[in-house]
Amino acid sequence: MPEDLRQTIRGILIEELTARGVSVDAAAAPAAREETIAITCDRDLAKFIKRLLKLTKDSRLRADIETGRYRFRLAQQVHQPTASAGSGQPVAAQKVVRFDSGLITEKQINSLPDDVAVVRAGISVKFTPLAMDAVRQGGIKVERLKT
Q: What is the pTM of this model?
């Protein structure tokens, strides 16, 4: 059986067992997923809150957020150039999502925020063909991590 399929089945079993109160070894749990967000103004904060509310409608994603398997990190605050001279409007920061391991599906790509421009993937991360189609359609850049 391919390792990707084993990881997917293992993840589903861990979720189901945990939901039924069965203690699961932490080493068997799937790796965390991180989303880097940039909040530089009230509008960014409002967009993040709307995104978070949308994510929590999916019971699996909500459980991942609650258990720390889906994490949010603030982007490093860097001086952003302005869109045009004198406009005072900052250029939107590219949002980055990081996957450290596992099999990435189309559903996961489609659940990313609209402003995600980069997906950083660990060496062991695999994408399904439909996930790669969703990446291309969304204009998302995939960066492979070396370690």
A: 0.43
Give me the residue label for tokens 């596992």.
Answer: 102
**Cβ atoms < 10 Å from Cβ of 15:** 19
Strands 95-99 and 33-37: antiparallel
Nearest to 95 by CA among 47, 26, 145: 47
Digit-coded pLDDT (tens) for 13-52: 777 777 788 776 655 555 678 888 888 777 788 888 888 8
Closest C-alpha among 13, 37, 33, 34 to residue 25: 13
Which residue, among 130, 59, 55, 58, has the nearest Cα to 97 in the 3D structure? 55
What is the phi/psi pair of residue 86, to 5°?
85, -5
The domain locations on the chain are 1-30, 31-76+84-144
Dihedral sign for Cα 8, 30, 143, 46, please.
positive
Contact 128, 105 (CB under 8 A): yes
How much is the CA Rg of the chain, to the nearest whole Å? 17
